[in-house]
Amino acid sequence: MAKLDAESDPLWQDLDWAIGQMLIMGWDGTEVTPQIRTLIEQHHLGSILLTAKNLKSAQQTARLVQELQTIAHNAGHPYPLLIALDQENGGVNSLYDDDYICQFPSSMGQAAAGSAELAYKIAKATAAEVSAVGVNLLLGPVLDVLTNARYQPLGVRAVGDDPQEVSQYAIAAINGYKDAGVATCGKHFPSYGNLNFLGSNLDIPIITQTLEELSLTALVPFRNAIATGRLDAMFVGGCAIANPSMSVNHACLSDQVVDDLLRNDLGFQGVAISECLEMEGLRTEMGVKTGTVMAVEAGCDLILLCRAYDVQLEAIAGLKLGVENELLTRARIHTSLRRVLRMKKACTSWEKALNPPGIGLLSQLHPSHLDLSLRAYDDSIAVIRDTEKLLPLTGSMHQEEELLLLTPLVKPLPASSMTKALLEAKNSRSDPHTLHDRWLHRDRSAIMSGEGVFRELGRSLARTRHGKLLHTSYTANGVRPVHENLINRASCIIIVTADANRNLYQAGFTKHVAMMCSLLRASGQKKSLIVVAVSSPYDFAMDKSIGTYICTFDFTEAAMAALVRVLCGVVKPQGTLPGTLRKSRKAAKSRQHWLVEAYDRDRDARGLDDLLQALARGSAPVSRFLRFTTAHSFELDTPRIEEAHFVVRNSSTQALYGFCATYFMPDAGTGAIGALFVDPAKRNVAIGRSLQRRALRALTQRRGIKKLQLGMSFPGIFPGIPTSADDSGTSLKAWFAHGGWDLAFPRRIANLGLSSLPSWTAPEGLLQSIQRAGISFDLVQGPEHAESVLAHVAAHAACVGVGVAATRQEVLELYRHVMLREGGTCAVVRAKAVAPPAAESHEETVLGTVIISKPGSPLAAYLPALQGASAAEREAGAGGDGDGDGDEAAVGGIVAPVVAPSATPPATLVLQGLALLGLRQNKAHKARRSVLTWVQNDACEPLVAMGLEVVGGFEEFTNSPDAV
């Protein structure tokens, strides 16, 4: 394979080759057509989008992809084709094969199951399956936040309306895709979660939120996903933006959206993929040639043209004309080319592309993936209300009573066994000859596909229940005599709705039937009513007149089978409503109590490691360092700090659902909560409350306890409540305040960082100022120097401006650990003042101390802030190559500065001197970055003046034991 910058590489020498690599195209048909072959061979097309119209089975897909890659290889392509696919699960799967490809819940269904770990496994399984047939780019995950959830067509394709929850599940999906070796593409930037539709086919949906509003909600998951460093591409939508600060007709054609917002503001350095430029509104307004050039000018790297060959040729001609007109430079094209080839290099090779494992691998994966699918669907079904205790049906109905199923007519899912069977049946018949016949057959197949799923639901429900079931459909014609007759016969009616908020006839029909049932019950008849929303959960989520309400989040065959298991009592429903609707039910759940046990290292260490990794995998960037934290990080093993840790666990599986670390410092009379974690899949069910209650009871029972502390600097996994830009810190404060903490007077501390240490130089005049003040420095380590260092820390660790925790004992213990136990990886810098010659004693006075740790020091196990940078920071700091270059290990630490309050020399100058010496030591140790930990807010300014930046803030709190 040629190198990215090889002079002989035609991609860099021939403009036609370069332009071909900037296009992603598709076609209709299950075989390679002359047109798509021409695009690959003669126009050097470098990326293909496959849809359900191209794919019949896993085996056919593998052959098709292999043929496409062989054509590219024989045509002299230096790199394999990118093969992209929409495989979001739920109702949006381009590839379906009941024998080899598994169906999993939609994004919202996965969130309803309440487990980011489950979402990770589903994403990894999905990516492994499509990778086996040769796909190397998944167009996902969906990062949109449903800020106007009830009326958005995106529906269950999105996680929900909570930006942090969307982030959590999106990051889990990204990690799953990447760990299976497939490239990722977030969508739909800047957001499809709150669009206004004007009605005409030519009108473009509009975002009306301001940039400030978008930043607080819709952009949060995009920002968090980018910060992981694992998002390869971003799909930029074709929506318009109309607000006071921005007026854009097509987001993917605007440099304000792509270059300014996506790249400059959010820091995205990957591949930007445009919305399909075949959309009618764009073609009518400006034409594809102009649109293609505008997309590249805006900052897009891959231009999508879905299927029309004449339009695809028009786009190629447009890019060439853009270069001729000097609207596009070769440098601009090479920038995109570099991004695209970097992604190709990471996700494919000719060996992989020409030899997809295909059916052999899928046969091995299928049994375990089927088990995962079954568990995921069973966990996702959500019973929102059952006020009349109708579930399961086996307990509320006699076997001889009749059950009525009423279902709407819905469009077919693009890839499902029912659609596949109908298409095969249609193809086996002679094709209709007239235009009217073709229209009639097409429409009928769509109706039958939707009906077919619900017919099978009825048959399955009757078989499982062993009772009689009546089934008919309903339409916009409302309640007809046939419906009235069946309702009069049945004892229980199940109404299925699918996006009733946008199909208002369904809402009207359901309310009409509910009224009929209520009147019949008033006359003494048994008329139970169950409503099942098989798409959006918002149909009747807030309508408590519907007493029994169930959500399935999609209407695939797998979802309907899980619904039957719930209705008949085979499975106990576990799912919950997504986002803010789940939070509205928190109060009812919080009454639950959990058994809390003492942490046992031998029994629980492995479970704690798993819990920490689940938190890191599914959390926003504020918790990114948890992936470096292990069970060992909480164990100080010192007699001067007494440890007592607690867990909530599953005694059958040994899994930890929650963990709380507590420390008691007898010399200071202080008890501290040093960490409190709950499995993301088990939140909002009072596990954290149970752990905190047990921890506080243990601390307040300690002899000599004088105060309680929330946050711990050593170990520094939880220095305090984070003061993050989003609302996570505010939510945490509210949670602890509800638990009894007085949070009125925090001690605010910060971590600072220097991202480009090799190029940093000290501010002019700083060293001279330090020398004029009579401050000298030395570097000490080992027991022989411990006495003076520890005496200084003991005397001044709680002084104003120090930047460490107020409790003297934990800081003293940190220094004792470094001086007596740390070996050669850490040392202490002392700042000293020499007494003037006229003084009786010429002994030097220690003015301040700070700990210096080398990159990779064992001390970093206790202080995650020293463990490395986010991927975005690494890419920025490493010149944007994104290859890592060992950056994570190349972090030098400047830890816990302790400065004596003094007017002469000024304490701020002493602090700057300690930081200066620390940065020099980090530089000498070949660190790429420096991190300065635990600086009080009022001491940050002189350090920022030196070139450091605040990278994280925390609030530590202390309370009386009697107050909590």
Q: Any overview of this molecule?
A:
With 964 residues, this protein is of the alpha/beta class. The chain folds into four domains: 10-363, Alpha-Beta Barrel (TIM Barrel), CATH 3.20.20.300; 381-584, Rossmann fold (3-Layer(aba) Sandwich); 597-705, Aminopeptidase; 751-959, Gcn5-related N-acetyltransferase (GNAT) (Aminopeptidase, 3-Layer(aba) Sandwich), CATH 3.40.630.30. The chain is 39% helix and 18% strand. It has 33 helices and 32 strands. Strands 20, 21, 22, 23, 24, 25, 26, 27, 28, 29, 30, 31 and 32 form a 13-stranded mixed beta sheet that branches. Strands 12-9-7-6-3-2-1-13 form an eight-stranded parallel beta sheet, sandwiched between helices. The longest helix has 31 residues, at 435-465. The radius of gyration is 32 Å and the shape is globular. Residues 1-8, 428-449, 586-590, 799-807 and 869-887 have low confidence and may be disordered. Residues 16-342 form the Glycoside hydrolase family 3 N-terminal domain. This is Glycoside hydrolase family 3 N-terminal domain-containing protein. InterPro entries: Acyl_CoA_acyltransferase, GH, Glyco_hydro_3_C_sf, Glyco_hydro_3_N, Glyco_hydro_3_N_sf, NagZ_Beta-hexosaminidase. Pfam families: Glyco_hydro_3.
